[in-house]
Amino acid sequence: MLRGRSLSVTSLSGLPRWEVEELPVEDLLLFEVAWEVTNKVGGIYTVIQTKAKTTADEWGDNYFLIGPYFEHNMKTQVERCEPINDAIRRAVDTMNKHGCQVYFGRWLIEGSPYVVLFDIGSSAWNLDRWKGDLWEACSVGIPYHDREANDMLIFGSLTAWFLKEVTDHADGKHVIAQFHEWQAGTGLILSRARKLPIATIFTTHATLLGRYLCAANIDFYNHLDKFDIDKEAGERQIYHRYCMERASVHCAHVFTTVSEITAIEAEHMLKRKPDVVTPNGLSVKKFSAVHEFQNLHATYKARIQDFVRGHFYGHLDFDLEKTLFLFIAGRYEFSNKGADIFLEALSRLNFLLRMHKSDVTVVVFFIMPAKTNNFNVETLKGQAVRKQLWDIAHSVKEKFGKKLYDALLRGEIPDMNNILDRDDVTVMKRAIFSTQRQSLPPVTTHNMIDDSTDPILSTIRRIGLFNNRTDRVKVILHPEFLSSTSPLLPMDYEEFVRGCHLGVFPSYYEPWGYTPAECTVMGIPSVTTNLSGFGCFMQEHVADPTAYGIYIVDRRFQSPDDSCNQLTQFLYGFCKQSRRQRIIQRNRTERLSDLLDWRYLGRYYQHARYLTLSRAFPDKFHMEPTSPPTTEGFKYPRPSSVPPSPSGSQVSSPQSSDVEDEEDERYNEEEEAERDRLNIKSPWSLGRVPRGKKKLHDSSSFTMSSFCCEPRGLLTDSQTKTNYLHSSSRFYPGLACLWITPTPG
């Protein structure tokens, strides 16, 4: 089955609708099974939570989520109620009568979907019997010491039992069950082994072995076809988990994954080509600020500036109005998340800014949770000093204002020499002395438990980014998730993202990448890579991603050093932007949010459900092999107004925020937004040029089919590499030498 290349774009406003027969949802029951239903562990929780409203709107009371029961989650996230559906009610009652604790209710998120939660602990006494059932079904044994795999077996066995009870009383309704990741896969295996009349979908968000191999710093993508899969899984003591995952993939009627790059990985790791690629979306309404996102950026940036004032007290010799805030966030996977290449690029960026005597300062936040003892005393002291200075300034201001007011009432011009008395001057001098410090501002906000071997801190020591006065790049490691109740940086993650200028996520292994997607819908530019699902998706749908604030680093077809140089070039180019150019770029970035809305991306899931029904019940459901249709290679075109960055400028150092290019005067936000809307209303192909217009240099026929559809090794032939760099320079200006500024156009 061919994977539809651009299905999401066909559903954008103005484009031809995806003409497909609507599913008779009133005669169907849809179940989604995942370990992260009401249980936040990772990105799958975000997928299910944000997609719930779109799916619930479509399926109504015939949509159910199945997950594990945890008392705290139940009390805070679920409202218990009685099942309306007779088949569900009977299944719940039957399992409860047999000693299993099954909870039913509504998940208190947008869409309020029904949830069925199984108490794993109450059914643990069945573990040995269910291990035997799994062995009979697929000859996979689970060692007793693997607590997680044993829990997944219990969860899967309960799921299969529940689905059997439902199908026994479904009254002719067909059942679709979608299983997310290997944790839920056991339920799929047992359901198929018992020949339950259900249509099944298995979705992998990242292959189990792929994550392990990439974490071991192996050249993963260049050796996809060379790995001895069984040997690699056995050496990492995850062979039984790998077998559970692979069995789930091959038992499913339809196999889906979240991106083209993961589809390539799954084909080699799991030995089955995905039938449908289902990109992850977001509930864009949640992040939409209704024309106020620029104001929110200014508001939250001011709060980050307050934190920086305290953190760098005594060394605050840089202009906060010319300071850019960059950040990287996610699980602490040093290599997989690209923290290694990011730190190296920051070292090179620091050298460039110092060499060109730039007045721009870059403050970089690493928001990656790690093991800590507590807050760093020096960091807490900095915030206390800042607050003390603020209180003193307000106190003096009030006294100054009262004296000025009294003098004006008397009709006198106050003597400025007498407006402040000796006590006021003494207090201010003491405040100034309190800001003196003998040490450098700390590079971490917490006391790390494993300071000497921590990868980020070790790299910071190697490259020498210690927040010296002469450094133009400052680094702050915040090894804890952000919270509005924190005494250091009291901001939620969304507020923090809105206040930053750029999110940097140069991941080596990122099946999708929610962090840059969240930046996009909030109008914040971001850096991603062509090894992330998000980066591949944007390359496919946007002709010039950089113009829309999506910087895509090539980590697949060039060496790590060249990738680092390209990332440095992107960061340096961003530092050279004027304030007006950054505002323009944020406007463009925010306009891409429609591409990531579940209202559009949800149609991939519709296609997968229809496909699984046609395979499980071919006598009642039929699907044409050519569906879904493609969109003739539509892409967001390159904006025709000002360039988003001064890459074509010959100025050697970053411009002041007060400087505006003459070309900026050509920019009109409403006109450009309307031009984008018109562009997406008419089909646009990479090879076709509108009548009366010249073909732009950026509108080449370079497509993602050559980029993410088949694994390739590093380019070795010099002529081939030259041709590749030439054809890619339109998408990756940083592929040029780091020291050479690309020419305009």
Radius of gyration from the CA trace? 28 Å
- Whole-number average pLDDT? 83
The portion of residues assigned to helices is: 40-55%
Total strands: 17
Tally of helical segments: 26
The major β-sheet equals: 9 strands, mixed
What portion of residues belong to β-strands?
5-15%
Strand order, main sheet: write it out. Answer: 3-4-5-2-1-6-7-8-9
Our measurement of the CA-to-CA distance between the termini, rounded to an integer number of angstroms, reads 40 Å
Structural class: alpha/beta
Spans of at least 5 consecutive residues whose pLDDT stays below 50 are: 1-16, 626-634, 645-665, 681-745
Overall shape: elongated
Biased composition (Low complexity): 647-657
Region (Disordered): 622-679
EC number: 2.4.1.11
Enzyme class: transferase
Task: Explain the overall architecture.
Its EC number is 2.4.1.11. Pathway: Glycan biosynthesis; glycogen biosynthesis. There is one protein chain. The chain is an alpha/beta fold. The protein has a nine-stranded mixed sheet, sandwiched between helices. A six-stranded parallel sheet has the order 14-11-10-15-16-17, with helices on both faces. A two-stranded antiparallel ribbon has the order 12-13. Helix 19 links the parallel strand 15 (502-504) and strand 16. The model is unreliable at 1-16, 626-634, 645-665 and 681-745 (pLDDT under 50).
